[in-house]
Specification:
By secondary structure, this protein is α/β, with parallel strands linked by helices. It has a single domain, classed as Rossmann fold (3-Layer(aba) Sandwich), CATH 3.40.50. Helices cover 34% and strands 12% of the residues. It is built from eleven helices and eight strands. The strands form two sheets. The protein has a six-stranded mixed beta sheet with strand order 2-1-3-6-7-8, sandwiched between helices. It has a two-stranded antiparallel sheet with strand order 4-5. α5 packs parallel to α9.
Length: 343
Amino acid sequence: MRIALTALLAFAAGVLLMVGLSHHATRGAIAVAANQAPAATESAPAAASTASTDDDSASNDNWPAQAPSPEQVMYSQRTMVHKALAELGPRTPGRPNLYVVAFGADGGEDVFRNEAEYAARMFPQRFGPDSHVMVLENNPGSLEKHPLASWSNLEETLDGIASLMKPDEDILLLYLTTHGDEDHNLLVDMDPLPLDQIGAGDLSDILAKRPFKWKVVVVNACYSGGFVPSLQGAGTLVITAARSDRSSFGCGSDSDITYFGHAWLVDGLNRTPDFMEAFRQASAEISQWETRDKLTPSEPQMSVGSGIAEQLALWRKHITPGPVVAFKPASPASVLDRPSASH
């Protein structure tokens, strides 16, 4: 489901017109509107920073003083996406290449930025120049560094990558990290910008319109198991941080990285280049943490479509994993231990 945020300020409506997003207005409504923060409980997504439609000064207070204006940021997105695509390393011929899109969607918490930017360092350092990474993220501290994690930028990025890669040989890895709700929608928020939300069906449609034969889709959010039915299929590996009716853990202002991001990205992929084996190790590790913290098990999910395991094995055949890539948060939290907040 996708809409522009309801009850927009006149300013925000002008932004939408400027960046040509009015064609999205017919898409459905998001279950959790970005101007209504969900409760931070174990069974619901944690609260996110949101825009106030009644108080313009409240929205302005959330915008970094030294950043370009919201209008300037929105206007610059197409240029930023094309610049980031141009900076991807050249494709290595004669072997499968890996193209990674790290999508950190909630600008209200640094934990999602930390994971997206860690992925950007880890994949090429650990797996070599055949791994090409692009970051889309929402965070007050990186508005001029990376394009926004938005629906439009995701489509623009995937179109650009499809033109650079060999879609029948290379592998797309899409890593999404944010809050999720019980209706299986991902929170996409950079207060006060009017960004559309992404549901399970939306993500499936976005990918189905592109010519990617081989895909790895990782959804790190609460209730993310609800994305499996619409994404699974031949040539696709789907990994989620939780069951369709369970929370996942480790977000919040006191966290540097989520449970799943820590277990799969940092621990798992620094031990093995096999994404599925990293998932199995991560699931066991997360279970131990949840038992320790007396949390309802999140039960991460994995669906392996026909052919993808063999294509990933062919990719691994041509790489020599590098040394462990240490996790260093772009924006450190005040408490380094893993908290029990759900996301």
